[in-house]
């Protein structure tokens, strides 16, 4: 019997573990990451130890930075504080198989490049808009500067001088304006509510404050997209993440970009929420 490749995607609100048979996800398990800290990683490792005995290798995709097999979180408001945490060795203690860790956006961009909407594109820029915002450039089918510590972190590029404070410590980052966290906070504050963004968009879709907030977040992101286009000359952008994949948000963003009359094409991530998992699979095969 062939062995399973397993991906572990650690995001701002959940961890998703996928079991692959060849190129197909045959089983998926999700864990919440609220109040998440290093001890919670034990649950994931124990889950893997107790549930499978035929793993060929494990690929880990995490939010924040992965450098030399160690993990550091960037926006400490979103997920517990990890500073140079030896994430690969943590899993290697119990599994004597190949294990690697890469950034989640790095993974998602590879997933789209090999199995998703980037299959036919040599160059594109992947942006995830979710709890936070991340990015990665695919140039000639490879992730640009993937061996560097900071790569594609557009969420933490300043879009407004001296603007809103960001969880990374800088002021005016894109993430402080266009991430799901920022949009949700903005709408809840104005409507005096305490709801998740998904519920706000679903249940208050006609509310002017909700519409204006989404428009404003999409407008700010569109400026970042044009910035990237101007710097790298990339025309194709693939948008993923729970907010990026939301029809209302994506359509607004697409409309704003089209209105600029620049040759930029937006597509949604074809693999949707599995882009990171498939990216780990692609990394295990092609890197
Ligand atoms: Zn920031």
Characterize the structure shown.
The protein has 287 residues and is of the alpha/beta class. It has two domains: 116 residues, Nucleotidyltransferase, domain 5, CATH 3.30.420.40; 149 residues, Nucleotidyltransferase, domain 5 (2-Layer Sandwich). It is built from nine helices and twelve strands. A five-stranded mixed sheet has the order 3-2-1-4-7. A five-stranded mixed sheet has the order 10-9-8-11-12, sandwiched between helices. The longest helix has 25 residues. The radius of gyration is 18 Å and the shape is globular. The mean pLDDT is 91.
Distance between the termini: 25 Å
Write down how many β-strands occur, each being a DSSP E stretch of 2 or more residues: 12
Q: Round the mean pLDDT to the nearest integer and report it.
A: 91
- Residue share in β-strands: 15-25%
Q: What is Rg?
A: 18 Å
Q: Say which CATH homologous superfamily of the largest domain is assigned.
A: ATPase, nucleotide binding domain
Poorly predicted tracts of residues? none
CATH class categorisation of the largest domain: Alpha Beta
CATH architecture of the largest domain: 2-Layer Sandwich
Number of domains: 2
Q: N-to-C SSE series?
A: EEEHEEEHEHEEEHHHHEHEH
């Amino acid at each position: 019997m062939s062995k399973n490749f397993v991906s572990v995607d650690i995001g701002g609100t959940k961890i998703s573990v996928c079991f692959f048979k060849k190129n197909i996800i045959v089983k998926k398990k999700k864990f919440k990451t609220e109040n998440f800290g290093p001890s919670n990683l034990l649950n994931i490792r124990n889950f893997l130890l107790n549930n499978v005995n035929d793993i060929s290798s494990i690929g880990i995709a995490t939010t924040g930075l992965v450098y030399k097999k160690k993990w550091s979180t960037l926006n400490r408001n979103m997920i517990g504080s990890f500073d140079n945490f030896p994430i690969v060795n943590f899993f290697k203690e119990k599994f004597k198989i190949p294990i690697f860790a890469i950034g989640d956006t790095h993974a998602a961009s590879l997933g789209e490049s090999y199995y998703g909407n980037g299959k036919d594109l040599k160059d594109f820029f992947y942006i995830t808009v979710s709890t936070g915002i991340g990015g990665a450039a695919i140039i000639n089918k490879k992730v640009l500067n993937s061996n560097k510590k900071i790569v594609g972190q557009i969420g933490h590029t300043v879009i407004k001088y001296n603007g809103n404070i960001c969880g990374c410590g800088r002021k005016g980052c894109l993430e402080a304006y266009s991430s799901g966290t920022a949009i949700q906070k903005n709408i809840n504050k104005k409507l005096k509510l305490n709801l998740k963004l998904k519920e706000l968009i679903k249940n208050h879709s006609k509310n002017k404050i909700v519409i204006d907030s989404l428009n404003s977040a999409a407008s700010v992101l569109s400026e970042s997209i044009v910035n990237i286009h101007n710097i790298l000359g990339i025309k194709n952008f693939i948008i993923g993440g729970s907010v990026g994949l939301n029809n209302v948000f994506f359509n607004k963003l697409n409309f704003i970009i089209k209105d600029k009359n620049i040759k930029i094409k937006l597509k949604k991530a074809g693999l949707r929420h599995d882009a990171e998992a498939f990216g780990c699979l692609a990394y295990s095969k092609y890197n």
